[in-house]
Each structure stands twice: as C-alpha cells, then as structure tokens.
User: Which sequence fits this backbone?
C-alpha cells in the first residue's frame, strides 16, 4: 500500500500537521468573532508609519525605547504591505499561535514519545489564553512561540552539541530577547546545565558560551546600540523596566499593575512623587523609578522578599486582580481549566521522576529550569495572568504526561 494512503504511517508522520490546523481553525474563528483589542504596540507602529519614529507618549513625556521592538516592527511590515489591515496581522498571530502547538509537540515527543506529544499539542491548541490573544494586538503570542522554540533548540543541544546548533539556538534566543528579555534568566543556566551533563571541559564550554552570546548579540545589540545613541545610556531593550520594577515594589504594592478596584498603581502614588515624575523626561523618569524602588527595598528588605514570594505564588496561581478586565464567566471557566491542567501537570512531574526515563531526564529538567527561572525573574516585577501564559505551553507537556500516566495506571489496575 502506498505510504500516502497508509493510515498508520500518516498518523505517525504527520499528526503535528493535524494539530496545527486544529489550532489554526479555532484561532481564525476567534479572530472573526471577537473584535481586535489594541495595545501600546499599535500606537508605536502607527507612529513609525507616520514618520514620527519609535515613540510612545507615557507619563507626560515621549518614550523612544518604551518596549521591545520585534512585535511593533512586525506590525509595521504587515501594515505597510496591506494598507494597515488589522485582520491580516491577527491571522499572522493565529498562525504563530498555532505553531506553538507544533513546537510543543516536538519537545514532548523528544522526551515522552508520540502519544504524550500528540496530547500536549492538542492541549496547547485548545488553550483559551492563547486563543484569545490571537485577537489582541499584543506580543504574547510571539513571547510564547520563541520561549518554546528556544527550549526545543536547547534540547537539540542536549542531543547534538556542536557549533552549528549553538549558533542557531543563539540567533533564535536573540529574537526572543527582542520580544521578551526574561529569557535571559534561563539562557546561562541552561547552557551550564547542558555543558555539565555533556561533560564539556571548561575551555570548550567557555568557547561555546562566548559563541552563543556573541551570535545572540548580533540579533539584539543593534537595538541596544540604537538606544545608547539616542539616550547616551545603556538600555538593553526598553526603558520602562525600572517603572515595572517600581510597580511591583512600592508601598502601594498589589502584585499587579492594578489594585483590586482596577486603578493603576501609579495613580496611588503620593501626589508629590507623581508631580515630580510628570516633569521629567524618559531617562530621568527611568532613574527616578529605579532610585525609588531601590530605596524602598533597602528600607524594607524582608518585605521585598515576602512580596517576591507572593508574586511567585501569583504567577503560578491567580493574583487578586485576575479577571478584573474580563467577564466573570471567562475567569471561572479558565480557572476550572487551569486547576485541571495544573493538577495533572504536578502529576506529570511526579510520574516523570518515578518512572525510568533517564535517557531524556536532562531534557525534562531543561523545561523545569525554564519554568522556574522565568517565573522567578517575572516575580521581581509584577504579575498578570498573561505572563504565565507565555510559558504555560511548556507546562502542558507535563500535564499531558500526567494525564497519560494517571489514566494508564488506573486502567491497568482495573484490568488486574
């Protein structure tokens, strides 16, 4: 029988294509049914197209390095080619969101095999947060895609550590930094871990490490250099980092950018502080927020530790402001979904280390390292549910493992 009509061959060889199209159809329906939601990136893209440059008005002044540039530049290219067609940009987001499911499939297949990979891909395809963010003009889709792709390439290094794979992983990591620089909390630890399990000598490991960050810098350093030429100050990707650091570490701390009533934390600051901020330019605001945050941490170091732990808890659960800007029903439905995936995810982590899969344990450890490092890095700032959604596809690999192991064990016990 020809291979193209052999059902077993087709199912094994091309099931990731099924996953992609299932995810894509769902997301296209969402794009059609749900009106687009515009964020700061839309204003920046519009300003670039109008010849005003990469600018965004914020806190009474003009910011020229407000956010990471990758998503606004993607929007600019799409709008330039399509006469500012928002629907096309949403479709592109839907495609990349669907590709996340494919990447997760290949990661899971490398570690746990075909069945768990298929289930993990389907879980990502059905993830409500990723579906909804296909309709929002926000970089979350690209954050999640590049986080997952970096993990897949790191696992490739575990299987075959060579200069070519190092360079490919570095280039993709550089793109990831241009959309979500919290990946930097993961990269050096991942490389050290890989070098350790591969028993790479210090000199060779140092060469690999230098090679990696040099090629990653080829991607993100032009933007950093642009920021320096404009501001005469080192700004890796965005100047708003000190502001979001302050939001998560100030006397009016809520864990989120909003309090329980939906008021932005900046509006709760003392009047004198706000008046001072609104008189400053971008860089001066940057320095003022940093000084205010560091002074607060020095004054209340244990409060800083306590609140960082609380934000870490919020990252993996829900902060008090969760669902504040959405219909209550949406939050309840997602909470039910999340309790399900979180419970089986914990089971999956347990079953992974209860069973003998030492060959692929290192790859599973890389996923756990990514989840831990990125969530800790985010906890230094403030937490919204969408921050978890950027890495939740990786966690769903363990959810799929937990579901398969739990129901397989239960079925086997019933048979015996």
Assistant:
């Amino acid at each position: 029988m020809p291979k193209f009509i052999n059902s077993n061959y087709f199912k094994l060889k091309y099931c990731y294509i099924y996953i992609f199209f299932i995810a894509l159809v769902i997301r296209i329906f969402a794009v059609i049914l749900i009106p687009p939601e515009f964020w700061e990136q839309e204003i920046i893209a519009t300003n670039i197209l109008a010849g005003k440059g990469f600018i965004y008005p914020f806190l009474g002044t003009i910011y020229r390095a407000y956010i990471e540039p990758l998503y606004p530049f993607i929007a600019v290219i799409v709008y330039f080619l399509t006469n500012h067609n928002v629907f096309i940009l949403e479709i592109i987001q839907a495609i990349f969101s669907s590709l996340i499911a494919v990447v997760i499939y290949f990661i899971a297949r490398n570690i746990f095999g075909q069945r768990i990979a298929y289930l993990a891909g389907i879980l990502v395809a059905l993830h409500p947060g990723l579906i909804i963010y296909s309709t929002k003009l926000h970089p979350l889709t690209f954050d999640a895609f590049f986080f997952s792709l970096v993990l897949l390439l790191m696992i490739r290094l575990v299987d075959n550590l060579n200069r070519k794979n190092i360079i490919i992983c570095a280039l993709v990591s550089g793109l990831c930094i241009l959309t979500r620089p919290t990946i930097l909390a993961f990269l050096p630890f991942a490389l050290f871990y890989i070098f350790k399990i591969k028993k790479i000598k210090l000199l060779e490991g140092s060469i690999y490490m230098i090679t990696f960050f040099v090629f990653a810098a080829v991607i993100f350093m032009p933007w950093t250099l642009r920021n320096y030429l404009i501001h005469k100050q080192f700004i890796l990707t965005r100047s708003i980092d000190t502001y979001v650091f302050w939001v998560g570490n100030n006397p009016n701390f809520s864990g989120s950018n909003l309090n329980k009533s939906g008021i932005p934390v900046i509006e709760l600051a003392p009047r004198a502080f706000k008046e001072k901020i609104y008189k400053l330019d971008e860089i001066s605001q940057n320095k003022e927020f940093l000084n205010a945050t560091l002074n607060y941490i020095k004054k209340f170091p244990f409060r800083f530790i306590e609140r960082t732990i609380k934000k870490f808890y919020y990252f993996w659960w829900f902060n008090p402001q969760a669902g504040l800007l959405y219909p209550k029903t949406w939050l309840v439905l997602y909470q039910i979904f999340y309790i399900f995936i979180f419970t089986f995810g914990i089971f999956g982590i347990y079953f992974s280390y209860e069973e003998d899969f030492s060959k692929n344990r290192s790859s599973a450890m890389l996923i756990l390292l990514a989840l831990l490092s990125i969530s800790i890095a985010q906890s230094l700032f403030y937490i919204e549910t969408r921050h978890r959604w950027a890495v939740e596809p990786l966690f769903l690999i363990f959810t799929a493992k937990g579901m398969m192991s739990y129901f397989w064990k239960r079925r086997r016990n019933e048979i015996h």
